């Protein structure tokens, strides 16, 4: 079997004295859509923040285990390098866009560390606007005036403008009206079909398992079930605890 793109091995992390992850293991292969599902506080965001190597004070501290990208440990790598050199981008919960800047200014800021040509960058602007026509229509608008769903699209657009090949999404469905949610997941599917690797965390287990190829269930900092999405959806315990019976 080839080396997975991302390998999380026996990962323990803490915030101060609180241990949030107790030795989790999972992999993400190139081109896959993998989801981590679990309840509030299970450790899903902590896992993504650990991979993104977010700096303190936000970041959890890895105390044991490893995170590898194409077989190489990335522990201690700067968050900028994770984006610019590994092309791994995090779309955090709460979106973190600049509300006082326009849509197009937000997208432009995301390109700052790119080393490729202007033509490549222009191609990505066109891609973002074709995936999310609502952003195209609103490109001169201040981002704080966008709806929650449109802000979520902008957050994904920013990841694409950083030239990512792997996108990690923290609850992209949060607060979205059904129609916008459909648009969002249709766009993500299209990106995956073009080769984007996706690591998705979600409380909405049904949505996540319908979308992903494989999944892991995380419960209070431990992985308690894993497998192809279809078999997780058939698992009686997963059904009972996460899919509403
Ligand atoms: P949610 O869907 O509610 O965001 P989650 O599965 O993403 O949940 P995490 O946010 O990763 O869960 O939280 C995992 C554990 O770590 C929780 O017990 C949480 O209280 C704790 N935790 C998260 N962030 C911090 C922090 N900055 N300081 C201290 N503890 C934290």
From TrEMBL:
InterPro entries the record matches: AAA+_ATPase (IPR003593), ABC_transporter-like_ATP-bd (IPR003439), ABC_transporter-like_CS (IPR017871), BCAA_Transport_ATP-bd_LivF (IPR052156), P-loop_NTPase (IPR027417)
Domain of life: Bacteria
Single GO molecular function: ATP hydrolysis activity
Domain ABC transporter, residue spans: 6-245
UniProt key word RNA-binding: no
SUPFAM superfamilies attached to this UniProt entry: P-loop containing nucleoside triphosphate hydrolases (SSF52540)
Keyword field: Amino-acid transport, ATP-binding, Nucleotide-binding, Transport
Statement: the UniProt record of this protein carries the keyword Transmembrane: no
A single GO BP: L-amino acid transport
Pfam families assigned to the protein according to its UniProt record, in alphabetical order: ABC_tran
PANTHER family on file: HIGH-AFFINITY BRANCHED-CHAIN AMINO ACID TRANSPORT ATP-BINDING PROTEIN LIVF
Family named by the database record: Belongs to the ABC transporter superfamily.
The protein, known as: Leucine/isoleucine/valine transporter subunit ATP-binding component of ABC superfamily
Upper taxonomic lineage: Bacteria, Pseudomonadati, Thermodesulfobacteriota, Desulfovibrionia, Desulfovibrionales
């Amino acid at each position: 079997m080839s080396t997975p793109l991302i390998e999380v091995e026996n990962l323990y992390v803490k915030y101060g004295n609180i241990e949030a992850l107790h030795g989790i293991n999972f992999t993400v292969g190139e081109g896959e859509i993998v989801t981590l599902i679990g309840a509030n506080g299970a450790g899903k965001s902590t896992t993504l923040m650990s991979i993104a190597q977010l700096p303190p004070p936000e970041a959890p501290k890895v105390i044991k285990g490893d995170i590898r990208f194409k077989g190489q440990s990335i522990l201690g790598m700067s968050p900028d390098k994770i984006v610019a050199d590994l092309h791994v981008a995090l779309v955090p919960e709460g979106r973190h866009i600049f509300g006082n800047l326009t849509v197009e200014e937000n997208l432009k800021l995301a390109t700052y560390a790119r080393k490729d040509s202007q033509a490549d960058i222009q191609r990505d602007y066109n891609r973002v606007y074709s995936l999310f026509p609502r952003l195209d229509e609103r490109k001169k608008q201040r981002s704080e005036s966008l709806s929650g769903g449109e802000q979520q699209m902008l957050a994904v657009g920013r990841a694409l403008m950083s030239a990512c090949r792997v996108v990690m999404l923290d609850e992209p469905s949060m607060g979205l009206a059904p129609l916008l949610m459909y648009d969002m997941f249709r766009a993500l599917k299209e990106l995956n079909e073009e080769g984007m690797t996706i690591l998705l965390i979600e409380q909405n287990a049904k949505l996540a398992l319908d979308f992903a190829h494989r999944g892991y269930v995380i419960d209070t900092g431990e992985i308690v079930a894993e497998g192809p999405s279809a078999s997780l959806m058939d698992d009686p315990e997963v059904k009972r605890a996460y899919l509403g019976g």
